[in-house]
Amino acid sequence: MLNRNCIAMLSFCMLLCFSGITHAQQQTLSPLKVSANGRYFQTSDGQPFFWLGDTGWLLFTRLTREETEQYLNDRKQKGFNVIQVMVLPGVTAANIYGDSALIGKNVGKPLTTSGSQSADANQYDYWDHVDFVVSKAAEKGLYMALVPVWGSPVKAGLVTEKDAVTYASFLADRYKHFPNIIWMNGGDIKGSDSMHIWKAIGNTLHSKDPGHLVTFHPRGRTQSSDWFHDSSWLAFNMFQSGHRRYNQDTTAGEKHYGEDNWKYVNTDYNRKPVKPVIDGEPSYEGIPQGLHDSIEPFWKDSDVRRYGYWSVFAGACGYTYGHNAVMQMHKHGDGRGVYGVREYWETAIHAPGAGQMQYLQKLMYSRDYATRVPDQSLLAQNGQGYQHLQATRGKDYAFIYTYTGSNISVNMGHIAGRRVKAAWYDPRNGETKEIGTYPNNKGVIMFDPPGEEKEGNDWVLVMDSVK
């Protein structure tokens, strides 16, 4: 007789055969873990992992298998390595093939069928389709950050604690053997809304699937640490800096960080115990500023770059990008869509910001990742708002980001070496322009970025030790 673990592993191997994933390909992926210093992610062999995520929220429900392949191929080519997806956008969730996820809108009763997973078989169901997508992502080296159930149906009282435990147990049992799973509890909601449900899901996932990381995706302008930092199931903190510009962030009782997403990082970076932190939903490219009014200006590629470099240089362990049309998988024939969407997903995947995110990842991998810390003492002076400069360094290098191309006055001597070599790194294309070598790593040196000072003329000052 096969025991339960053997049966589960056999089922997983059969799924891999169905999806075309070989054993050798699977060996390139392993569940992520938190580094020993608690600051970043790493693979099972100890290699640093920089989270570069995309919000493909409705991937499971909106795209066919062929469209899924197109989307995942594009994201892999652009350097993304994590896809954030809703498993259940609501209790009436169904996929593009008409397969419902639940029996009677009850999360405690997933609608599963036994039998073949062939595309033409009647037995192919909602969960088989989720399996297919997750396996395809693994084949391409992509991790899936799965939101079990979005916050709105939970807040509406459509999920009981008992059913939440049953459902989370189902997910843990089904996906614990997949190498590319990250659990993202919550879903655009405050932890204080139905907290007993979020605790039940988090504790169940952590206890039944201890091999995969769990976090919490909160409401805009809040962070998981507001409620769950000390929870044993929360492996890392996530915040949603949201979609408002400075003068729109005026709601009473909320944090008024405006567009300064680096402030959320600062808060979590200094918490004890130490846990990684990431902006899981900043302003999306191609969405109205403030989110709901389509006559407002739309966020651009320069904005998503700013959010990325600010948060990562402040100490975040990665960054999640989003695009309005892609996050909702807006298609021809959908009508107006939501949030003033102006594009369709298959063209929006080529938006400039999406292609530029890889240069942030490449820059972070270009130096010793494990020694990196945020260090604002590098700056002899700093500004506010868009004039804010953000600095980070390792033992023998430093990066300083300016969004406007303003002058950067640097307190030298913060990295090793008697001399320092400096260069400009272009966040738009990853190209480097050499500045020169400075014979004395002392005093204050002012650096003048290329071009005129204006919003979106962003640059990274790169300094390396010269022995």
From TrEMBL:
Species classification: Bacteria, Pseudomonadati, Bacteroidota, Chitinophagia, Chitinophagales
Organism the protein comes from: Chitinophaga agri
Domain Apiosidase-like catalytic: 35-370
Keywords on record: Signal
PANTHER family listed in its UniProt record: ENDOGLUCANASE, LMO1036 PROTEIN
Residues of the Putative collagen-binding domain: 373-464
Domain of life (superkingdom): Bacteria
SUPFAM superfamilies on file: (Trans)glycosidases
Keyword Transferase among record annotations: no
Alphabetical list of Pfam families matching this protein: Apiosidase (PF13204), Collagen_bind_2 (PF12904)
Protein's name in the database: DUF4038 domain-containing protein
InterPro entries reported for this sequence: Apiosidase-like_cat_dom, Collagen-bd_put, GH
Signal sequence, renumbered to the chain: 1-24
